[in-house]
Amino acid sequence: MARIPVPAPISVGIFLSYKCNSTCRYCMYACSPDWSSDWVSERDLNRVLNQLAGRIKPSPHGSDRVSLNYGLHFTGGEPFLNFDLLLKAVEIADELRIPSTFVETNCYWCVNDEASRGKLTLLRNKGLRGILISVNPFYLEYIPFDRTERAIRISQQVFPGNVMVYQMEYFLQFKKLGIKKILPLDEYLRMVKLDDIQRRAELFLTGRAAYKLKDFYPKCPVSYFFDKPCQPPFLRNWHNHVDNYGNYLPGYCGGISLGDARNLDLICEEGIDADSYPVLGFLAGGDFEGLFQFAAKDFGYEEKSEGYVSKCHLCLDMRRHLVKEGFGELAPQEFYSHLE
Known about the structure:
With 340 residues, the protein is α/β, with parallel strands linked by helices. 34% of the residues lie in helices and 10% in strands. A hairpin with a 5-residue loop joins β7 (240-242) and β8 (248-249).
């Protein structure tokens, strides 16, 4: 039996849910208001966080500081949609002394100064160390920019030195453009050069972005991607995720699980059984051509004539086809119904 080792994580994001107030074109995890309201249970939070305690590495600047690829973060979906659960998650992590904890948010909830300061202060008092505030043209279609500005301003007062703006390039651009409310993407593109969305800051063409943004990018045939490595690596010890169903998601790869994170110790000890989980076996083993042949010959996948904008796009499209054909390895399967 072929076994592929799984690196023990040093940084992890916990999905409270896939449910979100927005349906952003860019979302790697295909989150939206239409997802099932399946919030992670307190019991599962305890099981997962207890196994992460002792593994999570603090920011290089210290356990009370935050860094993007260190520590533990709470995400989704939009975690502030269930604020009481977010408070409980932070409290459990603090009791376990997990370092460098932060929350990731789109700031929809920052409707006024008093309420925003109140929520952030409660989180800090429960033990949260910092916050990551998401900013790009896709959030701007749903989140009034004055709420983003408010969130950053007050967060800098509540979490001094521990506010990450992802991505600052867009924040500065929106301020320069004088934007205050929401802005549809087509209007944004009339205000800037078309290639601005491609080059200004980091974009991963996976998840919903692979479909919703594909017209902005050149496309390549299947064979072009066979010898291209996954970027970032498919298996890694940093910035992996655990969703509200207990799936241990590799990196930014939505819709694929390395196993049940409630038994994370077992996953790290035993690795992946490549014979029982062929998709994981192909991806973890770096055999992308093998995955294509498996999807094509065994399940009738056909190459798209227009091509693919990224290796992630091709991988995701093959996996979506496998799910439609009843292939049961991939999880959560609901992910594949929210991509377009």
